[in-house]
Amino acid sequence: MNGPPLSGRKGLSGNLWKRMARDYIAITIGCVIMSLGLLWFLDPYKVTAGGVSGISIIVNYSLGVPLGVTMFILNLPLFLIGLRVLGRRFGIRTLYGFLMFSVMVDVIDNVIYGLILKKEPYLLSDPDSVSILSDLDPLLAAVFGGVLLGIGLGLVFRAQGSTGGSDIIAQMAVKYRVATAGQAFMAFDFLVISIGALVFGGIGFALLGFIALFVSSKTVDVMIEGLGNTKGLYIVSDSWETIMKRILSEINRGVTVLHGMGGYTRSEKEVLFCVVTRRSIYKVRQIVVEEDPEAFMVISDLHEVYGLGFKPQKEEDTPL
Q1: 278: Cβ–Cβ under 8 A, 6 or more apart, which residues?
Q2: Any residues with CB less than 8 A from the CB of 68 and at least 6 apart, and which?
Q3: Long-range CB contacts for residues 283-288, cutoff 8 Å, separation at least 24
Q4: What DSSP character marks residue 5?
Q5: Whether 93 contacts 168, CB under 8 Å
Q6: Which of 150, 144, 176, 161 has the alpha carbon at shortest distance from 79?
Q7: CB count in 10 Å sphere of residue 81
Q8: Distance CA 55, CA 196 (A)
Q9: Closest CA to 301 of 280, 278, 285
């Protein structure tokens, strides 16, 4: 019978289970970090950074309903609608993500802080109960709350998970071509932040919310794409061969020669492409200027680089 040996199949299955366990651990850690950002920084200072968590802060302030309970109540119908509209690919990871986030918020706030540390419930979300945060400026609270939200959400996204809420709304908007994902996120978050400003009574709360939203979005980008430590270079020069040899010998980086043609002159050109670290950029520019001051060079940020000399390639099979 044709096919790979059984040992190979077991190995693959084992790798999938390990990757699945790693992803769910990452989602859990991400939800814990997001919960701390919500409880330590955003909720105490009434900073609504959009999303279902922002609505939960408003409801908690207005009606006293626990944050985690509100997030669960709001996310559950959204998830069921998303499951029906978007199908199974919508995924069990979204269910796990929003359940874990909802549970962790109230577990940390009540069980850990209330029972184990013998504090009154919800004191964690009261800045006066944590002495190091009692005199924190609201602007700093918005910034650091956004950072923790972004770090946690970045971990969840890297594990191909979701915490529900605006993610579900955005995916449905894309499916029905109502708006792009970015437009749906922006509209929903803008609505939540605006409602928060009306409830809390001041434009300052809206500004803090937008700051937290901006910081969290940028932090998510860094978590997913990295800091852009590597650069991609395209070099067009008649002295391409000399430049290539110097890059190979002096910087010890590979260079790819691409065959191109000038759009206006219709003459053939050799284009050098190479990937180097940020600290090597100056040296490459120096080489190019020395060999051909008239050379055309494009430098761009690269967030993910895989292969020899950089990150190893990884399998992208995604279990449940």
Answers
A1: 228, 229, 230, 231
A2: 56, 101, 102, 103, 104, 105, 106, 107, 109
A3: 283/250, 283/251, 284/233, 284/247, 284/251, 287/243, 287/246, 287/247, 287/250, 288/235, 288/237, 288/243
A4: -
A5: no
A6: 161
A7: 14
A8: 8
A9: 278
**Alpha helices, DSSP H, located in the chain:** 6-37, 51-63, 67-86, 92-106, 138-158, 166-175, 181-200, 203-225, 240-246, 281-291
Question: What does the alpha-carbon distance between residue 215 and residue 15 come to, in Å, rounded to a whole number?
Answer: 35
Taking only the tens place, the pLDDT of each residue in 71-102 is 999 999 988 888 887 776 567 888 899 999 99
287 contacts 247 by C-beta, under 8 angstroms: yes
Tell me the two tokens of residue 138: 């609201």
For the entire predicted model, the pTM comes to 0.73
Structural domains of the chain sorted by starting position, each given as residue range(s) with its CATH number in brackets: 6-225 (no CATH), 230-302 (3.30.70.120)
- For residue 249 the two structure tokens come to 């010998």
Cα separation, 115 vs 239, in Å, equals 72
Q: Average the pLDDT over 167-188 and give the result.
A: 80
* Cβ atoms 9, 38 nearer than 8 A: no
Q: Can you tell me the distance from the alpha carbon of 108 to that of 305, in angstroms, rounded to the nearest whole number?
A: 38
